[in-house]
Design a protein that fits this description.
Length: 118
């Protein structure tokens, strides 16, 4: 949960529409109660309009919800999901090397603590 993407979302999400939970947290386990083994393989999940999106689809809908120019992210849906997920996996496997790994989680500051579900 403690990563630069979440930090970036917190900064951009002025209306505080996003809530965050670890895929290892209680909230995720409730949402995936029948298939918790899937959570081991996933690091991005969006629960949006009562639907669950993972990997590239999750990122597309998360960015879409920021509004404005970010709504153009839906254009990525014209690409096959398999290609988007390969790209997602490539970025996910290299993100620490490219963007660095945080030594300590500074996301859950007091002003943002209500945005974290568990």
């Amino acid at each position: 949960m403690c990563n630069n993407f979440v930090k970036y979302l917190i900064k951009l999400d002025k209306n505080e529409i996003f809530k965050f939970s670890s895929t290892k947290g209680v909230t995720a386990k409730k949402i995936f109660e029948k298939s918790t083994d899937q959570l081991e393989k996933i690091d991005s999940v969006a629960f949006y309009n009562k639907n669950i999106y993972v990997k590239s689809e999750a990122i597309i809908y998360i960015i879409y919800e920021l509004g404005g120019i970010y709504k153009l992210s839906l254009l990525f849906r014209i690409l096959p999901k398999k290609i988007l997920n390969v790209l997602y996996d490539y970025i996910a496997s290299n993100r620490n090397r490219w963007f660095g790994k945080l030594d300590k989680c500074s996301i859950a500051e007091k002003k943002n603590i209500s945005r974290f579900l568990d």
